[in-house]
Amino acid sequence: MAHSRNKTVLVGLLLGVLLAGGCGTVATVAAPAPVAVQEPAATSSPGPVRLTGDVHTPRDLDADDLAALPHHTVAVEYESGSGQQSHSEAGVLLADLVPADSLATTDRKNDALSFGVLAVGADGYAALVSFGEISPEFGDRGVLLATAEDGKPLERPRLVVPGDVKGGRYVSDVVELRVIRTAD
Hints:
By secondary structure, the protein is α+β, with helices and mostly antiparallel strands. The protein is 17% helix and 34% strand.
């Protein structure tokens, strides 16, 4: 209660000081000068996406490598923790980045179907898509390594899995595409 009374007294004193400026007019108080906000320093371009695992030739894919490949755009809708999402995603088909002849296959019938691609984000989040889903000869789902969303470039690529009801396999900030043989 004493705290509330002290606030009332303080407010009254402030009003008195302001009105004492003369003839009942309210004195104006200059606002502090705006403080210049320094923009964050430009960061270097993100590192490459590493293609690793059960491939003949592991390699790093930089922005120029991705730009040199055919680009596709797809409209996607999915549920996320933030609610229903609807976006236009543009990028490179995963099938172009990991074609069947790049896999370390054997002479087993349809051996490529025993492979998957694990997309790993900078934060360690990862999701797997089977080679059968991305292969033009099988599922041909149009799985993308997106480099732009809604017409705006992404800082790092994102795995996009069209047709998924939930966005759990949409991996942001992809740093690695790890090809995995899922069966011996």
